[in-house]
Design goal:
The complex is a heterotrimer of chains A (158), B (739) and C (419). Chain A has 158 residues and is α+β, with helices and mostly antiparallel strands. Chain A has two domains: 72 residues, Ubiquitin-like (UB roll), CATH 3.10.20; 74 residues, DNA polymerase, domain 1, CATH 1.10.150.120. In chain A, 37% of the residues lie in helices and 12% in strands. Chain A has five helices and five strands, in the order E-E-H-E-E-E-H-H-H-H. The longest helix of chain A is centred in the C-terminal third of the chain and has 21 residues. Chain B has three domains: 206 residues, Aldehyde oxidase/xanthine dehydrogenase, molybdopterin binding domain (Aldehyde Oxidoreductase, domain 4, 2-Layer Sandwich), CATH 3.30.365; 313 residues, Aldehyde Oxidoreductase, domain 4 (2-Layer Sandwich), CATH 3.30.365; 190 residues, 2-Layer Sandwich (Aldehyde Oxidoreductase, domain 4). Chain B has a seven-stranded mixed beta sheet with strand order 9-10-7-17-14-15-16, sandwiched between helices. A six-stranded mixed beta sheet of chain B has the order 12-20-19-18-13-25. The radius of gyration of chain B is 27 Å and the shape is globular. In chain B, 58% of the residues are buried. Helix content of chain C is 42%, strand content 5%. Chain C is built from 16 helices and seven strands. In chain C, the strands form three sheets. Chain C has a three-stranded antiparallel beta sheet, with no helix packed on it. Chain C is globular, with a radius of gyration of 23 Å. Classes of the chains: A alpha+beta (158), B alpha+beta (739), C mainly alpha (419). Chains B and C meet through loops of B and helix 2 of C.
């Protein structure tokens, strides 16, 4: 089947009920989405589907034909990080970092919908994602920082 | 970070290492016994300079550490230390972390020892290497050392002549034992240490680079899952493998006694096959039933115990005005690593290589070797990052599981991933503990007598030996778990931080060490320090209240350590302690401890809100002050302490493992909730007190205890009720405050 | 002819006058907010239990708002009503209400000033609460934290925004009444009946309503609706595959879940959260009373052999992991062969659950279920629901699915837009 991942059409040969997480990691070699629980409780597997954040661990690929999937790899690279990635680096918003890719994608889903979120809105949007190391205060700062950048860019583009 | 290829990992780059074979180099015993007792840090155990620093002819600088990156930023900090003393830019050296084939044996990355042991060793080794380089250069240039300049890996003469480090080093020159008394750089000249070098591992982590053992992909790699017994002690009586064996992609079913695993081509195929196998396995229940959750403290304190006198300087005084006593309890708590444990193992040419996020590659190697009945030299454990472990989680066991499976499928790399339910159900927990304290105040409100007792299981069942591994207990010829031993003071286990740092004219501390473990337990960040500091610092507030004293002033009255007082004062000032009453429904609390009474100092002031209708408490803001000796990376230190405060607040307000007669039942995040964004504090400030030129003090665990007690004291302030039973959940607070 | 017209006019005037007279209530004089210490602690404690049973907190607290301070929107077929502030704030709450005024509101549906209250406030049930319980409830509410907060104005369609029309509604559908115990039943049963008919107002959701929003007499507990969720029939027409017993009902009310029926969801989850403050004895009494309605249920419909198709692949990939886990409720998924949602006459609950899941609230042990609203399209959600309801033997398995899915997704979108 064909999946649209980070703007590219990718051909994968998997059973249709395979959760997207294992297809991303096993078939496409992507690392961002991670296995944390497989139950939709922790958000380490978060990806965007049509600009909405979802748990890839409970999303069967059969549901994703013709949908646009974006992982953290699609938001930028170490040479050219996107606004959220840049903000997370500036704020050093990671300790072990295992939750970080999921956090960035969850935040991306929020900022695509609302680039002027209040603190309460950020917290509500990030609620599905867990961080065990206790980095959440920095994560909130990074999201706020990225929101300013994104908003400024959007305003500059009119 | 470039892709982790097997070739790159095993062979490294071309280099001059003389007089020692590549593998097991760090273990080569010296021909003559050396007197290393005056060497600093881990140089005591590993005194040869080239065990720590290697300089190749092409100028590549490699630094070796026996410690592992756990997400605490140690890679970056050690690179800073090495780069500083070697006078190179921080991006110049390559750091090799814990690998039984390449690095010193520094035991476990635990106990907040990494900077104290490894950082110190690297610091002094690098400084001595710099001296050696300069000495070589003086000979070659025929110039005194004072005229030479170091420039990012080269020694430069005033006339511009330049020699790269690689060209300066004759073979074998670094294969010398370190000399005590090497001169370090002075803090005033630091360019790298004490700066906020960005973490070297973060860029890959935010862009989906290969950063974790979970991300490893080796040619021919297969995916595996284990089928665990339904509860500890259950034994496999029958296993019908016929269905699983023919499922798509399944390569092999592995069974050895009660150890069951399945190997498949693709990961989801392995998961499906695991479920099919689990459904067709029959088990005989364990003999022993667990105590009821509500009875666990009575059960534990009723078990046989070894009574260890930790401190006995009891001189009961006359003139006692008031005596108080209290009893505190702490539930079993979970490490709760976000990424369930994972390992990759491969048996090739008689050598078992295991890529693992264990905190101790050498001890895990020894246990796996015993499990597989292989000489340790034929087992290699290489640390690759996992998610934060916060102590002894499932990593060591996953490594052993992977090795056992790899033995059954020789030649092919096996990636073994635990499921969430398996991590929650089988990781060793932070032990349930009880403490009792009685103290007396004189008429002036000073403590004149202190009597403290703590009950706990061991805080370390780390391998070491195959019997400590789940796989070792499950195989057909099982290994007996070694009898648990208490960790001696000054480190301590259940008695860690049981000796108050306060000046007390009469004090006694007893540790009731309970060998029998109803639930599997081991080291969790802070060990007994979390509970002991919670108890001591809660009780200090209870005493302050009885003495009519302000909690901060009361502590200062009883402290003689100037650095302790500085940290207490700074935290209180940063918080605005005593400036304003908290708003309705809020409370303020304070706590302080020096981790192990010998590592970092940490004071925390907290504001907590309590919802009247539900009793639910939330940490609103926290201000901490930390003294970790010479700071290497200020932001890294802040990050660790902020994290400790949030993590400890989560433990303190929500967390307890649940279990029934058979075993642990808190198998997912719904049944074991931890802090989510709705409860994250509004702000956490960490003030650092830098002590340039003083020894490194381990800070990774210094926040757990003080944060817990600060929160508890704030809850008491908000509600007027003292709660002593961790965690301080909403229903407990509600029961205390009523309607 | 002139006389006929005059007589008609007189009748209308008399009728209108009677109407006005029926609907007129005197204002009860405001009192200074009573001192908290004037209420005995036992009364306050008992009042807390009663407020839990009445689930006052759920309706009278806005999401993220102060307890009892009102502002929560209640969707009705007639528009949106915002719950009032029942904290003892003198300006915006009930701080100046005497106990008599409070009791009148519960018994007659009239506020302190004599104005009609919309029956969204279920005084058709609360009228049965005893005077002693009124007093304890009053003691509890008057000792809560006063909060200055005014609810937004109601947004009701014409002509329902005219409060005086409630008089007509009351004439047709409401009588003040006291609870009448059944001497043939046990004390526990009667206690349950008193609570269910009165404070707990179960019928307000679980009984179908007529076009004017009144509970249909003679159809008590035959299934109703609450906030776009279907409140299952509590009796012989219950869709639960395994019969409810008194023990099972008690466990469900006490814990918010039960092994054979799953977790309380939607508005019922708020109810069981509130019921955490109720006593065991009262919950057992309610369970006893409700259980008699169930009696003997028929066996569940047989499971249809699984049909290949888009719904089936979605089920295996999205649902099976948790719903075929042997752990079961409260934390792992319910074995769907036991699900009431799958067999209910209305697929609304299934659409809601699949779309929104059970969001993680943190802080306490609660079930978590991922929502699939973003993962699945409307069409995929419909396919999945059709598969599930067909497989598990729902009556008319394909009816109403599109509407239920659209409604669920609209509600989600509104929630997200409001964030």
């Amino acid at each position: 089947m064909i999946l649209n991942v980070n703007g590219q059409q990718r051909n994968v040969d998997v059973d249709p009920d395979t959760p997207l997480l294992y297809v991303l990691r096993g078939e496409l070699g992507l690392n961002g989405a991670k296995y944390g629980c497989g139950l939709g409780q922790c958000g380490a597997c978060t990806v965007l589907v049509d600009n909405r954040a979802v748990f890839s661990c409970v999303t069967p690929v059969v549901a994703l034909q013709g949908r646009r999937i974006v992982t953290v790899e699609g938001l930028g690279s170490t040479d050219n990080p996107g606004p959220l990635q840049h903000a997370f680096i500036e704020e050093q918003a990671a300790q072990c970092g295992y939750c970080t890719a999921g956090m960035i994608v969850r935040a991306e889903g929020l900022l695509r919908r609302n680039n002027e979120p209040t603190d309460a809105e950020i917290r509500a949007a990030m609620q599905p994602n867990l961080c065990r190391c206790g980095t959440q205060v920095r994560i909130l700062r990074a999201v706020r920082r990225a929101a300013v950048v994104i908003r400024t860019q959007a305003e500059a583009q009119g | 970070m470039t892709a982790l290829s097997r070739r790159g990992l095993l062979t490294g780059t071309g280099a001059l290492i003389v007089s020692a074979p590549m593998r097991g180099h760090a273990q080569t015993p010296p021909a003559v016994p050396l007197d290393t007792k005056d060497l600093p840090g881990s140089l005591k155990q590993t005194p040869y300079l080239d065990a720590w620093i290697r300089i190749d002819t092409d100028g590549t600088i490699t630094v070796f550490t026996g410690k592992a990156e756990l997400g605490q930023g140690i890679k970056t900090a050690l690179l800073q230390v090495a780069a500083e003393e070697l006078s190179v830019r921080v991006d110049r050296p390559i750091l090799v972390t814990a690998d039984t084939a390449r690095t010193p044996n520094e035991g476990y990355t635990a106990g907040s020892h990494s900077m104290q042991d490894s950082g110190t060793a690297i610091r002094f080794a690098a400084a001595e290497v710099r001296q050696i380089l300069l000495n070589e250069a003086t000979t070659i240039f025929q110039l005194p050392v004072g005229q030479l300049r170091l420039d990012n890996g080269a020694v430069v003469a005033p006339d511009g002549r330049r020699l790269n480090y690689g060209a300066l080093i004759p073979p074998g020159i670094l294969h010398v034992v370190a000399r005590p008394g090497t001169q370090l750089k002075t803090p005033g000249s630091y360019t790298v240490v004490s700066t906020n070098v960005p973490r070297v591992d973060i860029p890959a982590k935010v862009t989906g680079g290969q950063a974790y053992v979970q991300d490893m992909r080796l040619p021919g790699m297969l995916h595996a899952r284990v089928v665990r017994p339904p509860h500890p002690g259950a034994r496999l009586t029958a296993l019908d493998t016929s269905a699983a064996a023919v499922m798509p992609g399944v390569v092999q079913v592995v069974q050895n006694g009660s150890f069951v695993a399945v190997v498949a081509q693709k990961e989801f195929q392995a998961i499906r096959a695991m479920r099919a196998l689990a459904a067709r396995a029959q088990w005989q229940a364990a003999e022993q039933a667990l105590p009821k959750q509500g009875d666990v403290f009575a059960y534990l304190t009723g078990l046989p115990a070894q009574d260890i006198t930790v401190l006995d300087s009891r001189h009961p005084q006359a003139g006692t005005a008031k005596t108080l006593r209290a009893r505190y309890t702490r539930a079993y708590q979970m490490h709760g690593s976000i990424g369930p444990s994972c390992a990759v193992a491969q048996l090739q040419d008689g050598v078992m290589t295991v890529w693992t996020h264990t905190q101790g590659v050498y001890p895990d190697r020894a246990a796996i070797a015993e499990l597989l009945n292989l000489p340790p030299a034929q087992v290699r454990c290489i640390h690759v990052e996992g998610s934060g472990c916060y102590g002894h989680n499932g990593a060591d066991d996953a490594a052993a599981d992977a090795a056992l499976i790899a033995r059954a499928v020789p030649g092919q790399p096996i990636r073994l991933q635990w499921m969430r339910e398996q991590e929650n159900g089988w990781e060793p927990l932070g032990p349930a503990m009880v403490s009792e304290v009685a103290a007396a105040l004189d008429a002036k409100g000073r403590i004149v007598d202190w009597d403290y007792a703590v009950w706990s299981n061991t805080h370390s069942t780390r391998p070491g030996s195959a019997g400590s591994l789940l796989a070792g207990q499950l195989v057909a010829k099982p290994f007996a778990p070694p009898p648990p031993k208490p960790i001696p003071m000054p480190e301590g286990g259940g008695d860690r931080n049981s000796i108050p740092i306060y000046t007390l004219p009469s004090a006694r501390v007893i540790y009731h060490f309970i060998p029998q473990m109803p639930l599997r337990v081991s080291a969790m960040r802070g060990l007994g320090g979390y509970m002991n500091v919670f108890s001591i610092e809660s009780f200090m507030d209870e005493l302050a209240l009885a003495a009519g004293a302000d909690p901060v002033a009361f502590r200062l009255t009883h402290l003689n350590d100037e650095r302790a007082k500085a940290v207490v004062t700074r935290a209180a000032e940063g918080f605005g302690w005593g400036h304003a009453k908290p708003p309705a429904g809020h409370g303020h609390g304070f706590a302080f401890a020096r981790y192990k009474n010998l590592a970092a100092y940490c004071a925390v002031a907290a504001e907590v809100s309590v919802k009247q209708e539900t009793g639910q408490a939330r940490l609103v803001r926290a201000v901490a002050a930390v003294d970790a000796g010479q700071i290497v990376n200020p932001d890294g230190l802040r990050n660790q302490v902020e994290g400790a405060i949030l993590q400890s607040a989560s433990w303190t307000l929500y967390e307890s493992a649940t279990f029934d007669a058979a075993g642990v039942t808190s198998l997912d995040w719904a049944s074991y909730p931890i802090m989510r964004f709705n409860a994250v504090p509004d702000s956490v400030e960490v003030h650092l007190i830098d002590r340039p030129g003083t020894p490194f003090l381990g800070a990774g665990e210094c926040g757990q205890g003080p944060a817990a007690a600060a929160v508890a004291n704030a809850v008491a302030d908000a509600t007027g009720k003292r709660l002593r039973d961790l965690p301080l959940t909403g229903d407990k607070v509600k029961a205390a405050i009523g309607v | 002819m002139r006389y006929v017209v005059l007589a008609l006019a007189a009748l209308i005037v008399a009728g209108a006058g009677g109407f006005v007279w029926l609907g007129w209530y005197p204002a009860i004089a405001p009192v200074p907010p009573p001192a908290r210490t004037s209420f005995p602690p036992a009364a306050v404690a008992r009042g807390a239990e009663l407020a839990a049973l009445g689930t006052c907190m759920s309706c009278h607290t806005a999401p993220g708002g102060a307890p009892f301070a009102g502002g929560r929107a209640l969707q009705t077929p007639f528009g949106t009503i915002y719950a009032s502030n029942i904290t003892p704030d003198p300006a915006t709450g009930i701080g100046t209400w005497s106990e008599a005024a409070f009791r009148r509101a519960l018994h007659e549906g009239v506020d302190r000033r004599g104005g009609q209250l919309y029956p969204a406030f279920p005084y058709d049930h609360f009228t049965k609460v005893s005077a002693a319980d009124d007093a304890d409830l009053y003691a509890y509410l008057m000792t809560r934290q006063p909060v200055r907060a005014s609810a937004p104005p109601n947004d009701l369609s014409f002509p329902f925004d005219y409060r005086f029309l409630i008089t007509g509604w009351k004439v047709l559908f409401f009588r003040t009444a006291a609870f009448r115990p059944d001497p043939a039943q046990s004390a526990q049963w009667n206690r349950g009946a008193y609570l269910v008919q009165g404070l707990a107002h179960c019928g307000a959701c679980h009984t179908p309503r007529n076009l004017l929003g009144a509970e249909k007499s003679g159809e008590a507990f035959d299934g109703g609706e609450a906030q776009d969720w279907y409140a299952y029939a509590l009796g012989k027409t219950s869709p639960a595959p395994i019969a409810w017993t008194a023990d099972g009902l008690y466990a469900y009310l006490r814990q918010g879940w039960q092994a054979e029926h799953g977790d309380a969801l939607g508005p019922m989850r708020e109810v069981t959260d509130d019921l955490a403050g109720a006593s065991d004895a009262d919950l057992r009494a309610i369970a006893t009373y409700i259980a008699t309605g169930f009696g003997k249920q028929g066996p569940p419909g047989p499971q249809v052999a699984t049909q290949a198709g888009p719904g089936e692949a979605l089920y295996r990939g999205a649902c099976a992991t948790c719903h075929e886990d042997s752990r079961g409720p409260p934390f792992a998924g319910l074995d769907l062969a036991r699900s009431s949602a799958l067999r209910a006459p209305d697929p609304a609950n299934l659409a809601n659950i699949i779309t929104d899941g059970i969001p993680a609230t943190g802080e306490t042990r609660e079930p978590i279920m991922p929502g699939f609203g973003a993962v699945l399209t409307s069409r995929q959600t419909e396919d999945l629901i059709a598969y599930l309801r067909t497989r598990f033997g729902a009556p008319h398995p394909r009816d109403g699915i599109a509407d239920a899915v659209q409604s669920a997704r609209t509600n989600t979108a509104q929630l997200e837009a409001a964030r």
